[in-house]
Amino acid sequence: MIFSATSSHEEGCDRQWSILTKGFTVSNGEVTGLKVVELDWIDPATRNFKEKPGTETVLPCDYAMIAIGYQHPDPVGLLKDVNAPLNNWGMVEVDPNMRTSIPGLFAAGDAQRGQSLVVWALADGRKAARSIDEYLMGESHLVQNEMSAVVISE
Ligand SMILES: Cc1cc2nc3c(=O)[nH]c(=O)nc-3n(C[C@H](O)[C@H](O)[C@H](O)COP(=O)(O)OP(=O)(O)OC[C@H]3O[C@@H](n4cnc5c(N)ncnc54)[C@H](O)[C@@H]3O)c2cc1C
To answer: What pLDDT digit, counting tens, does each position of 126-142 carry?
Structure first.
């Protein structure tokens, strides 16, 4: 839909279009190929497509990097153990002060915001630190400001 070529592409690669990866072939625990099928686009605007019957094939592959972007934290480990509240997108649900509905459980950065920027992770972390301070001490003298990183450095 939007064609772009970055320096990484220019370094050399073969790009294939309108194919869907359906799975991997594996031998002795190592990936050996991608099972793919060609697609017919019904309506590119709505990203509606259907598989072309009989076009299934395997592309040789010995290393696969899944580049689908950040979705949400895996609901395993700590998140599962404490039954952390998640929103409809799978992010940890927090109030504006980074508190979850579970007393003593806070979240900051991508885990509650989704894929974002380092500056937001820093600001969220500072906000969470203040909330944690309040939770533990009953009050906090840490700066309460979206731009606390700037205020503190002044
Ligand atoms: C490829 C890529 C490029 C990016 N480029 C930019 C950019 O140019 N500029 C920009 O501003 N942002 C960029 N970002 C986004 C930025 O990296 C994130 O927004 C930021 O790192 C989020 O910080 P965070 O502390 O919330 O999470 P993270 O940096 O993801 O830190 C979470 C940490 O928690 C650890 N962890 C996870 N689960 C557990 C567990 N159960 N127990 C203990 N530890 C655990 C992880 O190992 C990790 O160290 C990029 C992100 C990616 C993936």
So the answer is: 999 999 999 999 999 99
